[in-house]
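Practice record 12: protein with zinc ion.
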Amino acid sequence: MIDLNYTTDILLKLLNTPSPTGDTDAAIALVEQAFSALKIATRRTGKGALLATIPGKKSDAPRAISGHVDTLGGMVKEIKPDGRLKISNLGGYYPGSIVGEYCTVHTGDGKTVSGTVLLNRQSVHIHKVNNIHEQAADLQQTEIRLDARTSSAEETAALGISVGDFVSWEPRATLTDSGFIKSRHLDDKAGVAAMLGAAEALSRRNIIPAQTTHFYISTFEEVGHGAAAGIPANTAELLVVDMGVVGEGQTGDEYSVSICAKDSSGPYDLHLRRRLESLARANGIPYRVDVFVSYGSDGSAALRAGLDARVGLIGPGVDGSHAYERTHQEALQATAGLIAAYLQKD
Ligand SMILES: [Zn+2]
């Protein structure tokens, strides 16, 4: 039912559209276009998220499905006297995971300047290497070397760069012949691609969802308040689509959809979870149930903000989260398939 080429293509386009949390307009525009190509009406919310609504056979218990396009990133904190940049983090990550990464500074006048994240004392031919791990654990010990001739704060300012400019990391999005997708920011662009994959499948086959369903594309998840606003008030159920945690001690893998039983904010709705599990079984969709011990979602944000609804969380299994991540097309397929099954089921 799911068109995996469509879903993968949308994912790669999204991955190649920078959207650090707080600077997400281009990614929202891309998703908006994708929904409008499917003839699904959209509107933007007050704080810049996107709401796409598919009318259902019934609308007595409307549903919302959310995913986030905002990603980890940085912001220029300071222009150093030697022209290099100090950054402040957007979202939570281990600074060592960006050391050596290419990046792009997005200036106020709409230009971009490329650079590389380095340790302040990077050259082993000058500095002793024994404190390299200590340095890599501290964002204060990293800097951005710009690909421009600058050796002073004035020269960097003349490039159009100012404190407050957003910085995005090179995603290095790659689809391998073996079906793996490795990239930064699969969290949660893989989830959003799966949502579109499900919407496309229903639209292509002229299937009307069981209930009126709002697709909420969130823009501030990584900083904790994404879906705190914008989910329509009469929503009876919220299905959050966000990355499944894969790694030591987890049951999830890169070939399945993860169903989250509990995260740091507590258990997800039991009734909804049981329904999702049985839907996956009935449709032959590979799924794994897991507890995410160090994790919060837009579901937690919506509940804390007072949403009175059943909330569930599913997502493609993603390895190496908040660093150079990886999933497999099979996980995309499983996630999109479960969303499509959920949309159709009473
Ligand atoms: Zn996420």
